[in-house]
Amino acid sequence: MVTVDRILQDYDRDGYTIFRDVLDRDLIAEASEHVAWLQARHPELHGEDLGTELVARDPFWVRLVSDDRLLDIAELFVGSDIALFASHYISKPPFSGKPVLWHQDGAYWPLEPMRVVTLWLAVDEATTENGCLRVIPGSHRQDLHELRQRDDIDNVLGSESAVTVDESQAVDLVLAPGDVEVHHPNILHASNANTSPRRRCGLTIRYIPTSTRITSEEQPFVSALLFRGDPGVNVYQPFPAYVEGEHMPFAGAEKFA
């Protein structure tokens, strides 16, 4: 039996940890359906571009990222007052799907202080062949690096950390649907293109303690949602109301009516 203390020790040492079988098959199947529904509804967006601006208007998305099993994990890292900062599907189509170059999440985010944790939920099986997440263990102890643009290769972010990465130190994180990987905002991580015949979809969920300020000029921030505890220093979006025919049907939608 892996204890919470062991999980937190691993996270402190490596900058990441993995929780297996967090969400049930039915909910993961709905998440997979949700990706297809979003892509049909937003044909102008690639699978890697289903992100933050869509979240707070989507009842299923809010239902998914507010699941108590995910919030209980987030609470281990950010405490009991929990808000959503952002969430983003990264769905790589078969035999394509852009790579994500080496970067630190915190270099992109308007947060002060940079106290935040990412939960990476596997919607599909993630393998080396289909472009699973890769991390450099221990790199979370580094300061946030400057970013440099990368226009010479088609990639999800269009940029990378301005640092040389020793890829011999990289660990490939093979995940099954329903697994959750948790990582620090300073850890160097990336993923390769999908060279397999299978889609690789993961959902990133960025939770903050409500004492972390979202410093974006847009207030309330487009995907800021309060899930647990005291609201703290931010203003939040209201939960969306489910409208039949406008939103994807899902189990428990009536709770959002």
Q: Notable features of this structure?
A:
alpha+beta, 257 residues, Jelly Rolls, globular, single chain, four-stranded antiparallel beta sheet
CATH fold title:
Jelly Rolls
- How large a portion of the residues is in β-strands, by DSSP E? 15-25%
CATH top level class name: Mainly Beta
Q: Mean pLDDT, nearest integer?
A: 95
| CATH level 4 superfamily | q2cbj1_9rhob like domain
Structural class based on helices, strands and sheet pairing: alpha+beta
Q: Strand-and-helix sequence, N→C?
A: HEHHHEEEEEEEEEEEEE
Number of domains: 1
Helix percent reads 10-25%
Radius of gyration computed on alpha carbons: 17 Å
Which sheet architecture does the biggest sheet show? 6 strands, antiparallel
Q: Largest beta sheet: what is the strand line-up?
A: 1-10-5-12-2-14
Task: Give the overall shape.
Answer: globular
Number of strands: 14
Number of H- or I-type helical stretches: 4
Distance between the termini: 40 Å
Short précis:
One of its GO terms (molecular function) is iron ion binding. This protein has a single domain (32-239), classed as Sandwich (Jelly Rolls).
